[in-house]
Design a protein that fits this description.
Strand content: 15-25%
Number of strands: 5
Shape: globular
Helix content: 25-40%
Order of helices and strands: HEEHEHEE
Largest sheet: 5 strands, mixed
Distance between the termini: 20 Å
Length: about 150
């Protein structure tokens, strides 16, 4: 077990299987020293635990937890390409999309769920640049979607 996976286990979590693509794309691809993930939904055992808009059917706190699930799914996608999460030198960028009720403006707080989990698992290597974007709707009516870009050791 890698050190990163040990930290995941210490948090009471388990690195999931890679979420199968919903359309024609790869969950993650490597280009040189970087791995880019596709947008990851908060799938748990093949299903969304909750659907709807944040600020309406879904609370900001629920959405923050879902963003952490998205980040865990993104790490699974990265591992599927590089084999060992300890090869991550740095999380470079996180982009998160929040399906938002019209008056919801707390997208950065929602995305903190992903950012905080990456920091807990990877320490300083998990510190990253980030964008948090409110959108009208996401695939399968998911409340949140997260993609990451990581630099890996050769």
């Amino acid at each position: 077990m890698s050190a990163a996976e040990g930290k995941i286990a210490a948090l009471g979590l388990k690195l999931p299987q890679v979420v199968p693509p919903l359309a024609t794309y790869q969950p993650a691809v490597r280009s040189g020293a970087y791995v880019y993930t596709s947008g990851q939904l908060p799938m748990v055992d093949g299903a969304l635990p909750v659907t709807g808009k944040v600020g309406a059917e879904v609370s900001a706190e629920q959405a923050k937890e879902l963003a952490a699930t998205c980040a865990l799914n993104a790490l699974a996608a990265v591992k599927s390409v590089i084999g060992d999460l300890d090869k991550i030198q740095r999380v470079v960028k996180v982009v998160g999309f929040v399906a938002s009720a019209p008056d919801f403006t707390g997208q950065p707080g929602v995305l903190n769920g992903a950012s905080e989990l990456l920091g807990e698992i990877l320490g300083d290597k998990g510190v990253h640049a980030r964008s948090a974007v409110g959108v009208a709707v996401l695939p399968l009516d998911a409340p949140v979607e997260v993609e990451i870009q990581v630099e890996i050791a050769e």
